[in-house]
Amino acid sequence: MMQVDVIKKAHSFGHFAATKTEELVKRDYYFPNMRRCIENVIKNCVECILVNKIGPLPTTNKNYNHIFTVIDAFTKFTWLYPTKSTTAQEAIERLKLQQKTFGNPSRVINDKGGAFRSKEFEDYCTDEQISNVQITTGVPRGNGQVERIHGVLIPVLTKMSIEDPTKWFKHVDSLQRELNSGPSRSTKYSPFELLIGVKMKNPEDVIIRNLLEEESQEQLFQHRDNLRKEAKQNILKIQEEKRRTYNRKRKEAHLYKKGDLVAIMRTQFGNKLKLRIKYFRPYQVTQVKPHVRYDVAKIGDHEGPNVTSASADQMKPWT
Questions:
Q1: Distance (Å, rounded) from C-alpha 77 to C-alpha 184?
Q2: Among 29, 90, 247, 263, which is least packed by CB within 10 angstroms?
């Protein structure tokens, strides 16, 4: 019993997953089968439920135009409730449905919407001893699990109800079933299996599964493109900084014309060449090329290539 109390105390610091909770426990304690004990405690923890709402959606003949979303933070099990409004009363009624089966959570994490900030909702949470945690405005990653579901929810419902957008609510149950029967990327198990202990007995809805996979792939590609855009901006920023630094130190290039006599810099140095002259001379400019580049030819008999190309910063006038 003492082990369970220790784990619960560590887990309550932030209701982290098993790995993070294990790290916290190991700071002060050790006991056999720690990982398994931690997973069992977290598996039975109903303290973290994430809630949110999306909409407005096309109004249906039943006047539904929003979806109230509830996600269990550990198992990722998702409940989707079509609603007619975003009032506090709607939110409370949906939480009461959850309460009938699972009891009250210790806290709900929400998007700071008007319903969740209302006195009615605050009073309900106080009466039921539920902590009402509101994420910072403009930081949706604070409720990231809900936001990820919403990123899939709207596109898939749109495709499923393309023939009659006002009938989107008829597909919500099927979509919820599919979300909960497929494996989660983070847990490697389906939300249903983690919550109930067995796999969902359910004929595969191939259309929904394909739509979910397609939407997930599109999100992956979009994320990749965003990363690439950011990387490109970072590269351009560094290049511009280097260009400015170089230009501050760089002297204006000397311009030569055809027929000018010049000395050209030696570009190769080995151990035996360290004490040799740094410039070959004389050379004559035979052709002026773009970007202060020049073709030159050797005059007389001396060390250096007979003909070559050089940039202005590798040349100097010879008299």
A1: 10
A2: 247
pLDDT-wise least confident of 9-23, 89-103, 163-177: 9-23
Given the DSSP bridges, would you call strands 66-72 and 48-54 parallel, antiparallel or unpaired? antiparallel
pTM for this structure? Answer: 0.50
pLDDT at 3 > cutoff 50: yes
Contact present, 308 and 284 (Cβ < 8 Å) = no
The mean pLDDT value for 147-158 works out to 77
**Distance from C-alpha of 75 to C-alpha of 194, rounded to nearest angstrom:** 6
d(CA 243, CA 248): 9
Q: What strands lie across the sheet with 315-317, from one edge to the other? A: 307-311, 293-298, 279-289, 261-265, 315-317
Q: pLDDT value at position 14?
A: 46
Mean predicted confidence (pLDDT) in 278-297: 93
The DSSP string of the chain is -HHHHHHHHHHTTT---HHHHHHHHHTT---TTHHHHHHHHHHT---EEEEEEE---PPPTT---EEEEEEETTT--EEEEEES---HHHHHHHHHHHHHHH---SEEEE---HHHHSHHHHHHHHHTT-EEEEPPTT-GGGGHHHHHHHHHHHHHHHHHTSS-GGGGGGGHHHHHHHHHHSPPTTTSS-HHHHHHSS-------HHHHHHHHHHHHHHHHHHHHHHHHHHHHHHHHHHHHHHHHHHHHPPPPPP--TT-EEEEE-----GGGTTS-SEEEEEEEEEEETTTEEEEEE-SS-SS-SEEEEEGGGEEE--
What's residue 208's pLDDT?
Answer: 56
In this structure, the strands spanning 48-54 and 107-110 are: parallel
pLDDT in tens, 191-209: 888 888 877 876 655 555 6
Both tokens assigned to 75 = 């198992």
